[in-house]
Amino acid sequence: MTDVFQALAAPQSRRIIEELAGEPKTKAALIKSTKLTDASVVKHMNILLAAKLVKVEKKGRTETYSLNRVGFTEAAKWFGKVGSANLGARADDLAETLAEFGNNLKSWLEKKLDIELDLDSEKAGKEIGKKLSEAKQSAKKAAKQVKVKGKTKKS
Q: What's the Rg (C-alpha) of the chain?
């Protein structure tokens, strides 16, 4: 099987995918809409078929090409895995930024209102961190469900 990302590396392949996202098309319709040569469409179509990004349905002498969810599911699983791993670091960065914003807001309000606010920024930061951790766990569960669904469809 051709790697999905290698198949999508060529701009011509991506153009074909974009055309098929609208509706299934024959080779002649793809040549017309993409303005690629016959040889180029055949070449990129073979790569996309091998990567399972496109499928072909034959009716008599007519071949109609459409998107194939199998290849896109593989790519989505990879993005889910990488995305959930990156979420933790981004959540930590966001918590720090929010804590800094909270401290700045508290200082500004105290100056503007000439009062002292009894706000425990450490406690607020912990609450924000807890919520972000819950969001991270939820994202991990969702990524695992995508993996499980992808595996059961192959079986």
A: 25
Q: CB–CB of 2/70 below 8 Å?
A: no
pTM of this structure: 0.55
pLDDT tens column, 124-139 = 666 777 777 788 788 7
23: helix, strand or coil: coil
Q: Give me the residue spans of the domains in the chain.
A: 4-67, 71-154
Distances (CA, A) of 138 to 35, 37, 132, 134: 44, 47, 10, 6
Which two three-digit tokens encode residue 19?
Answer: 């055309």
Question: Does residue 1 surpass a pLDDT of 60?
Answer: no
Which residue's entry shows tokens 């192959």? 154
Distance CA(98)–CA(30), nearest Å, equals 50
Q: 53 falls in which pLDDT band (50, 70, 90)?
A: very high
The class level of CATH for 4-67 reads: mainly alpha
Q: Residue 65: how many CB atoms within 10 A of its CB?
A: 22
110 contact partners, CB below 8 Å, separation of at least 6? 116, 117
Q: What are phi and psi of 101, to 5 degrees?
A: -60, -45
Tokens of 76: 């989505």
